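Q: Predict the bound structure with magnesium ion.
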Amino acid sequence: MKVDVLLGLQWGDEGKGKIVDVLTPDYNYIARFQGGPNAGHTLEFDQKKFVLHTIPSGIFRENVLNIIGNGVVIDPVVLKVEIEKLLAVGVNVKERLIFSKKAHLILPSHRLLDAASETAKGKDKIGSTLKGIGPTYMDKTGRNGLRVGDVFEADFKEKYNALLEKHIGILKHYDGFEYNLSELERPWFEGIEFLRQFTTVDSEHYMNKALKANQKILAEGAQGTMLDIDFGTYPFVTSSNTITAGTCTGLGVAPTKIGKVIGIFKAYCTRVGSGPFPTELIDGVGEQIRQEGREFGSTTGRPRRCGWIDIPQLKYAIMINGVTELSMMKADVLSIFETIRICTHYKVNGNITDEYPFSICGSAIEPVYEDVPGWNCNLTGLTSYESAPEALRNYVNYLENLLEVPITIVSVGPDRSQTLITGH
Ligand code: GDP
Ligand code: IMO
Ligand code: MG
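A: Predicted complex:
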């Protein structure tokens, strides 16, 4: 068996949580391979809504094991709150969730460093979720980090103190940055105690054994391709590899073990936080999309920036990830428009191109649009793709021609049930 991958092709919040939940019955394992509590994955079913940050979106289904892989960074405080919410509604988290011993821990001082760094950047700030993601991955690559497996070692507290000392030293360089560490440490150590009750494994062995035993695994991406540390809109990115390649390093599965790659995108485009966004609409139309799509961050509540779909950007993401099939989300949101715009190319320094340029930060990049007819009717009650309006099916076919990958799922509402299978 191979590991299938589902990941975001834009700037995050494409609807990964919803589709992982929809696909989970086809799998034995759902695994997160990167990111941490900067993610907010929303699931809606049976008139209930849940937002997951660290836990894979397969957690609500019986007989499925959810794995937090070595590439993930974990904040025990956020994790505890998240698990307690699930326990409160009767989800058997203990039996359904396991952790890699190699996943890194977010310390309270990582969160402080994140805040200090963002404040120091002023108007150039990344717009981080301030969950400590960047500083934790810096300590990982700097070979100073603490891992889940360390929690069970006798010298855990010493290791913690050594890293904390280093952080306190760095924080001194941020003039005027004040903090109260002990207030943050108490819930953190409570979170560590809580974490000790859960199963921790060498997940690379675990995953590969599962594959040998013909078990089906779906890897759930966090963030999106344009937030990838290498291929995103650097420096306005997150600090992990959000792309298919991240599955290999974040779970310990070889590239030859990757199966389907399901790329997920909105029928338009959004971004939360700073950084370039070529098709952004800073007008009433952008506001209409934000209101209709309820585009406010699942983790921070910040308004998401909205714009039209961007084909050069999606082509780039499809190339980097080796996408084999696509899910198009939030088609229902575009129902308010009689005409929909598609950015097919960019004009960069006077030249028309559909290739993503090195720098789109502040460079003269102008989207070239094509207008297509909208469906302009309510889609949220649709139960089959065949009964979808012709204008929607034309939109799907047109995108498939441009992107050269089949769109297998069209989503027409936030609920699990509002999911159309195209048969493409
Ligand atoms: P993720 O981070 O990729 O899992 O996405 P988020 O959960 O952050 O954001 C997606 C938002 O859109 C959530 O509020 C979902 O409930 C919602 N959503 C998902 N699919 C659809 C859809 O097809 N239509 C509408 N209207 N909302 C959707
Ligand atoms: P999901 O998994 C959307 C953005 C932040 C910021 C940048 C860096 O729900 O799609 P970080 O906290 O990683 O230092 O922030 O990345 N960002 C996200 N945007 N969805 C996410 O996750 C995001 N996780 C981080 O807004 O611009
Ligand atoms: Mg999200």
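A: Residues 8, 12-18, 40-42, 44, 293, 298, 329-330, 332-333, 411-414 surround guanosine-5'-diphosphate (ligand 1) (CB under 6 Å).
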